[in-house]
């Protein structure tokens, strides 16, 4: 019995990877073996980047809350401690948005915890 290769599926798999490599420089975009490695590495970077993005945004929110709290004479840690003590459950994303775009609302929150 002759060997079955299923070249349709093989070509589809290769085409999928080469399509993902679109925009890469040099042989990384059109040579199968090079493109496969480049796409695998890119996927690893993308996975890691999705985790890093969460860290970066949390850091940004903390910086904004700190700046907003210091305008009203509190440090970030004092402000967050007072929020917890007064059972105000606003997350950092919302607090950062208030501090940045709605300073009067943020002042109301600070006055409530003081």
UniProtKB/TrEMBL annotation:
Protein name: Large ribosomal subunit protein bL20
Family: Belongs to the bacterial ribosomal protein bL20 family.
Biological role: Binds directly to 23S ribosomal RNA and is necessary for the in vitro assembly process of the 50S ribosomal subunit. It is not involved in the protein synthesizing functions of that subunit.
Keywords: Ribonucleoprotein, Ribosomal protein, RNA-binding, rRNA-binding
PANTHER family hit by this protein: 39S RIBOSOMAL PROTEIN L20 (PTHR10986)
Domain of life: Bacteria
Keyword rRNA-binding: yes
CC per GO annotation: ribosome
Gene name of the record: rplT
Pfam families: Ribosomal_L20
InterPro entries tied to this protein: Ribosomal_bL20, RIBOSOMAL_L20_CS, Ribosomal_protein_bL20_C
């Amino acid at each position: 019995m002759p060997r079955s290769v299923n070249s349709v599926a093989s070509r589809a798999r290769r085409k999928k990877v080469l399509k993902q490599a679109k925009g890469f420089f040099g042989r990384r975009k059109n040579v199968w073996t090079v493109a496969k490695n480049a796409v695998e590495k890119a996927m690893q970077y993308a996975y890691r980047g999705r985790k890093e993005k969460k860290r970066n945004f949390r850091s940004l929110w903390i910086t904004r809350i700190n700046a907003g709290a210091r305008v009203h004479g509190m440090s970030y840690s004092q402000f967050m401690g007072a929020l917890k003590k007064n059972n105000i459950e606003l997350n950092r994303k919302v607090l950062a948005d208030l501090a940045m775009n709605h300073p009067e609302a943020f002042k109301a929150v600070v006055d409530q915890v003081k």
